[in-house]
Specification:
This protein has 447 residues and is of the alpha/beta class. It has three domains: 108 residues, no CATH class; 174 residues, Rossmann fold; 133 residues, Response regulator (Rossmann fold, 3-Layer(aba) Sandwich), CATH 3.40.50.2300. It contains 13 helices and 17 strands. The strands form four sheets. Strands 4-3-15-9-8-7-5-6-17 form a nine-stranded mixed beta sheet, sandwiched between helices. A four-stranded parallel beta sheet has the order 11-10-12-13. A two-stranded antiparallel ribbon has the order 1-2. Strand 10, helix 8 and strand 11 form a beta-alpha-beta unit.
Length: 447
């Protein structure tokens, strides 16, 4: 009977473990409580952090943990209570405690969901909006609920790819969780600055109380932002970056760091003094703040290496535009060894290289993630990509807007901690940290 119960609980645990958010506050608290139960020194648990404990591994909040009281040092271990093991004298007390742990996680999984995304490790930048800002690693904890149904307008450059679909998932889900209205507009592409300006003007005219902007241009919205600020309407800069003194807050990461991480990733394989290697570099649409930042970081990270960076190929992040740029580079430089660019570029590169039987010769690296990039890394067709947790950036932007509207304390300049996704960790990362759910459809309005 006891063995049957073990098998039942552990089988259930293996099914739900991937659904449990790795930073669930409720699960962390339950596991802290469990750590004080008898025989906890014989039980080891892999995959979920205890609340208040630090992770081991490349991604904050992920990795291997030991079930211990909160003040006990954490040591990475390899024993999982729900994996078959040869019982030793030291592990004989295991069954009762491990079974209890399985039960606790099962119960917690019933309440844990993507809504329980916090606390989340972020980097708060001080002084905010400054090029000399220093990052401090902190936990981000949003409001439980808004005090009223605030009306928030969200403007994106486009919804043509899964990256912005992920940001949409973040803003829509957080608007639902907080209980506020959200209306999303998208301009159709990075060449449509005038359309984005017009859409934002329409939002303000209809009575939006706050505006969240994924900007097409770092400087092209400045006149509009000045007029919005004069109306005392808060503006949140999400994802792309805006160079204006009239914004209220930023929810974004440093794309300079994203570009640098991608550059460092391949530069380490080709140190200075080794044979020169050509790299095709596709930063994205010219003039966008995130593109300029990524380009700067990538070039700085690869400068002291054997990498020869070809002339950057700028262009819209639609797959058709990126495909044409890749084909141009392959024709002009048949000896190119790497193709590096936005996630859509990497998706297009994989298809082109496989079609031409060049996938063994030319390697692909992305400087951010989307479902195609994640799938490519999983299958070994893309070497790696830094993750900026775009879903979380969207969630934080909504929370910032509500905090400002309610006169509550808020972080002015903050973004998720960046980490590299590659073959070494791709299978252990929960999807909700990286992307929207696989079956997610765009949401343009939350009532």
């Amino acid at each position: 009977m006891r063995r049957r119960a073990e098998r039942f609980f552990c089988a259930k645990l293996s099914k739900v473990q991937s659904r449990v958010t790795s930073r669930s506050e409720s699960i962390g608290a339950m596991l802290d409580e469990f750590a004080l139960m008898p025989h906890n020194d014989k039980v080891r648990f892999v995959g979920l952090p205890m609340s208040g404990q630090a992770p081991t591994g490349s991604a904050a909040g992920l990795g291997q943990f030991r079930a211990t009281p909160a003040r006990t040092p954490i040591r990475p271990v390899s024993f999982n209570p729900c994996q078959p093991q040869q019982e030793t004298q030291m592990q004989k007390p295991f069954t009762k405690s491990a079974l209890a742990l399985c039960a606790i996680v099962l119960l917690a999984a019933g309440t844990a969901s993507a809504a329980d995304w916090f606390p989340f490790k972020v980097e708060e930048m001080k002084p905010p909006f400054s090029p000399d800002a220093k990052a401090t690693l902190v936990d981000y904890i949003p409001l439980t609920k808004a005090s009223k149904k605030w009306d928030i307008c969200v403007s994106f450059p486009h919804m043509k790819d899964a990256y912005w679909l992920g940001v949409d998932y973040g803003v829509a889900e957080e608007a639902k969780r907080l209980g506020v209205k959200m209306q999303l507009v998208e301009a159709g592409g990075y060449t449509n600055l005038a359309k984005q300006i017009s859409q934002i003007e329409d939002c303000v005219s209809r009575g939006a109380q706050a505006v969240i902007i994924g900007a097409i241009s770092a400087d092209g919205l400045n006149g509009l932002l000045k007029s919005i600020a004069a109306k005392k309407i808060p503006v949140i800069d999400v994802i792309n970056g805006i160079n204006s003194p009239d914004i209220s807050a930023k929810s974004l990461v440093s794309f300079q760091t994203m570009g640098a991480q991608a550059g460092e990733f391949i530069a380490k394989m080709h140190p200075k003094g080794s044979p020169p290697v050509k790299v095709g570099w596709f930063p994205g649409p010219a003039g966008a703040g995130w593109v300029e930042a990524a380009h700067k970081g990538f070039m700085e990270a690869t400068r002291d290496s054997a990498l020869v960076i070809l002339e950057p190929k700028y262009g819209d992040t639609g797959k058709e535009a990126q495909t044409k740029l890749i084909e141009d580079v392959l024709q002009a430089h048949p000896d190119v060894a790497y193709l590096v660019g936005p996630a859509v570029n990497s998706e297009a590169a994989v298809a082109i290289l496989r079609e031409r039987n060049l996938d063994k010769k030319i390697k692909v690296v992305a400087f951010h993630t989307n479902p195609g990039a994640v799938d490519g890394i999983m299958k070994g067709r893309i070497l790696g990509a830094p993750s900026d947790s775009m879903v979380i950036q969207g969630r934080i932007a909504i929370d910032q807007a509500v905090r400002i509207l309610e006169g509550k304390e808020y972080m002015k300049h903050v973004g998720p901690k960046i980490f590299m996704v590659d073959q070494s960790n791709i299978k252990s990362l929960p999807r909700e940290i990286l992307l929207a759910p696989a079956d997610y459809k765009p949401v343009f309005s939350v009532k």
